[in-house]
Amino acid sequence: MTTMVRAAALTNYFEVAQHLGLNPHQQLRQVGLSASLLENPEQRLPTSAVATLLEESAQAANCPNFGLRMAESRQLSDFGAISLLLSHQPSLRNALDTIVQYRHLLNESLALYVDEVGKTVILREEIVTDPPVPIRQGIELAIGVLFRMCSALLGAHWRPLTVNFTHDAPPELQVHRRLFGCKLEFGSEFNGIVCQAADLDKPNPLADPAMAKYAQRFVESLPGATEQSALADVRKAIYLLLPMGRATIEQISQSLGMNVRTLQRRLEDSGVTFSDLINDVRKDLVLRYMENPRYSLSRIADLLGYSVASSFTRWFTSQFGMAPAAWRRERQIKLEE
After folding, report:
1. Which residues contact residue 302 at a Cβ distance below 8 angstroms, ignoring those fewer than 6 apart?
2. Domain enclosing residue 53, as ranges
């Protein structure tokens, strides 16, 4: 199942690409896209093609913060049809709930989970592509856009506690510091933003309940507004909850607001089992983790839900034909050639 994203995800791609000396038309052609497809912000594009475009553009421009540069100028209006609904939510918590509810209208590959831990909250975010492709730039763009939305509702002076990325830090952090203005954590166990829990409930002074009701009715009238894929939602929930040790069918069904039997029935209708999806997500995540030298094999095993390292080694060998340590050595040799 190919996941899709609105063409608005590439808002200001041309400006950033040209500023860095690239030919955006050429870059688009290389991934099977064209400039005409970007003229309508609501046009649906394959997420894997958009993610690959950002990765190849960053490499061609020798600019490891390409996606973040795109995020710097994003506005609430770039969220499209639900932007009015977002801007009139009474609090950030309500706005995040709105994004979760209508994320399929924004980006079918977007996974967002609000994880409250005492007085802090983690806004966990993932991009799930099918087929899996490198997504470093896509993740930085998504987190940058999420930060910009939070700032729009909480005020320009708002700063989170930390911004976290599972990938390594780039050689230069000027753009990251300019946009976020807070502590940055790379090689983290999750992608997302950590802030004070109290920030979620600060009132939005610009919220208008009447306008919110009007915007709600408008969004509900859109084609596909109430249509969501159970298969896609389960996959995204696994991406978010697996590193937390909470990717059980009970936890996933609860996070999606249904009972276990209903979830199993919907997956059966799609021709897959819950264990199939767990295995698919593990295969994608393990490659991300294995390519990060800061992640030990024991840490990777833990992030993938294996309490015993030998179980992880057996699983990895069955999937990739060699033990994880041997895979890493071979990978390192290829990078040095």
Report:
1. 245
2. 4-210
